[in-house]
TrEMBL record:
Keywords for this protein: Hydrolase
GO MF assignments: hydrolase activity
InterPro entries found in the cross-reference section: Isochorismatase-like_dom, Isochorismatase-like_hydrls, Isochorismatase-like_sf
Domain Isochorismatase-like: start-end pairs: 5-178
A Pfam family it matches: Isochorismatase
CDD domains tied to this protein: cysteine_hydrolases
Source organism per UniProt: Phytomonospora endophytica
Tree of life domain: Bacteria
Descriptive protein name: Nicotinamidase-related amidase
Length: 183
């Protein structure tokens, strides 16, 4: 991994991981990618979705995906279910971002913070493929980042959707890679 590439660890939170049938292998693969990036002195950004009362109040009724979260007060910022998975917890020097929409860039300062570090390429690992990974990949492509998706570092509750996204959709904007050092 080069010093202009960042690994984005997206939505690895207990509440989101609970929707997946088997997370142990996924978490182990992403933990290995994080360790490799850290050993190389690379940039790691940890992103999670979490809300305060003000955030829930700001979700408009038109937002189908997040109205349910707001109405039920789910993913509260201080709820352990909305925290980072312990095996993928941020360390000093990592970027840490809290978001209130699907993508990692739309309601955060992540783009600015990456640019300040000279980052021009992103490697995405996250859950879900049809949510944060797809949304972040499309927006990052629009912002002219060079993109990679870590094949073993993404998952979705629907295996059919995951397969279509990984084989047909994401390769239009991103390279599908087996490891962060492939980048």
């Amino acid at each position: 991994m080069t010093d202009t590439t960042a690994l984005l660890v997206l939505d690895f939170q207990p509440a989101i991981l609970a929707a997946l049938p088997d997370t142990e292998g996924l978490i182990s693969r992403v933990a290995a990618a994080v360790a490799g990036t850290r050993a190389d002195g690379g940039t790691i950004a940890h992103v999670r979705v979490a809300f305060t009362e003000a955030d829930w109040a700001a979700v408009p009724a038109a937002n189908k995906a997040f109205t349910v979260l707001a109405d039920r007060r789910l993913m509260r910022h201080d709820d352990p279910a909305a925290d980072f998975h312990p095996r993928l917890a941020p360390e000093p020097g990592d970027l840490v971002v809290r978001k209130t929409r699907i993508g990692a860039l739309s309601t955060t300062d992540l783009d600015r913070r990456l640019r300040e570090r000279g980052i021009t390429a992103l490697v995405l690992a996250g859950v879900t493929t049809s949510g944060v990974v797809l949304s972040t990949a499309l927006e990052a492509a629009d912002r002219d980042y060079r993109l990679s998706v870590l094949a073993g570092g993404v998952a979705d509750p629907d295996p059919r959707v995951h397969e279509v996204l990984m084989s047909e959709v994401l390769p239009r904007t991103a390279e599908i890679v087996d490891g962060v050092r492939d980048r």
